[in-house]
Design a protein that fits this description.
This protein has two domains: about 40 residues, no CATH class; about 250 residues, 3-Layer(aba) Sandwich (Rossmann fold). It is elongated, with a radius of gyration of 23 Å. Helices cover about 50% and strands about 15% of the residues. The protein binds nicotinamide-adenine-dinucleotide. Pathway: Lipid metabolism; fatty acid biosynthesis.
Length: about 300
């Protein structure tokens, strides 16, 4: 029998061996031999490549985790073994998602935060450290979008968009990294957008596009600055995704246009995006930093 890595599998293997040795019942022997084969398979898996995605013992935070893409990422990180803090401007949304995770047996914490305020981002990290004692993964995902013709874009639209999408991502990176750099380990993932590299149309969104392009370049900068001290920084850039952000009644015509403009002829489901985050948090991404992973159903290829 192949050596087993998981202690519970080792115990199970010992029980099977002992019972096999002590029984002469042919039916029981047959069943135990089958059980032994299953333990072997589980043993190979527990040491195999999929195990490198496991996040057991790690602590994560997802900003904007109260709905949409952030909620889906929070569930995925929790299912991979992490304890997950849900940080959102809307506390009740964060509490709902935290309760969803707890009902699956995943330790969670709901935090109210406005990421555009540096002090609140620092307090968010302190709350996580008080509850869980550590922080290994930061997913800085909170974001907003507004639309206007560029010549009419108000100062308020510009500054608010930058404050949440760019300043917010930076303040979170900074607050998370201060702890992670001390510990010598951290995985930071920022949610950018394909709007960082293509100009969306027909809707006009200069502030959003500029903010997301800045998030990508900030990610590249931080990703090179902190990686030799154990902290990688990467970003995901989703294409049009089916969330509250894109589900409004007035967007129905646009949604059809966006689907048609996408080689896969559909919007992303939130679950389509979690693989990118799980890759960046896994041991398989140990040599990956400053990278922007575009997940857009082929949109930016056309
Ligand atoms: N939906 C898309 O098509 C799409 C495409 C590409 C990128 N993105 C990006 O993905 C991220 C998530 O998008 P989504 O579609 O899930 O959005 P969403 O609007 O469904 O959810 C965003 C969440 O962020 C929270 N939030 C907003 N402002 C905040 C603030 N100042 N501080 C803390 N939390 C705040 C909201 O309360 C909400 O729960 C955003 O950064 C967005 O720009 C979305």
């Amino acid at each position: 029998m192949a050596p087993v890595a998981d202690p519970s599998l080792e115990k199970l293997e010992a029980i099977i061996k002992e019972t096999l040795a002590s029984t002469s019942d042919p039916k029981l022997k047959e069943k135990l031999t089958r059980a032994q084969e299953l333990v072997n398979t589980a043993s190979i898996r527990s040491k195999g490549v999929l195990n490198k995605f496991a996040l057991d013992g790690q602590v994560a935070v997802v900003t904007g985790g109260g709905q949409g893409i952030g909620r889906s990422i929070a569930h995925a990180l929790g299912e991979a073994g992490a304890k997950v803090a849900i940080a959102d401007l809307d506390l009740s949304r964060a509490e709902t998602v935290a309760a969803e995770l707890e009902s699956k047996g995943i330790s969670s914490l709901a935090i109210k935060v406005d990421v555009s305020k540096k002090q609140e981002c620092e307090e968010m990290v302190q709350k996580i450290l008080s509850k869980f004692g550590d922080l290994h993964i930061g997913v800085n995902n909170a974001g907003i979008v507004m639309n206007s013709d560029s010549e009419d874009t108000s100062e308020r639209e510009w500054t608010t968009t930058m404050a949440v999408n760019l300043n917010g991502a930076f303040y979170c990176c900074q607050a998370e990294a201060k702890h992670m750099l001390k510990k010598g380990y951290g995985r930071i993932i920022n949610t950018a957008s394909m709007s960082a590299i293509v100009v969306n149309h027909p809707q006009k969104q200069v502030a959003y596009n500029a903010s997301k392009a800045a998030v990508v370049q900030m990610t590249r900068t931080l990703g090179t600055e902190w990686c030799d001290r154990g902290v990688t920084v990467n970003s995901i850039s989703p294409g049009y995704t089916d969330t509250e952000l894109t589900r409004a009644e007035k967007l129905v015509t646009l949604r059809n246009m966006w689907s048609n403009d996408t080689p896969m002829k559909r919007l992303a489901d939130v679950e389509d995006l979690v693989g990118g985050v799980l890759y960046f948090t896994s041991q398989l991404a140990n040599f990956t930093t400053g990278f922007n992973l575009v997940m857009d159903g082929g949109f930016t290829c056309w």
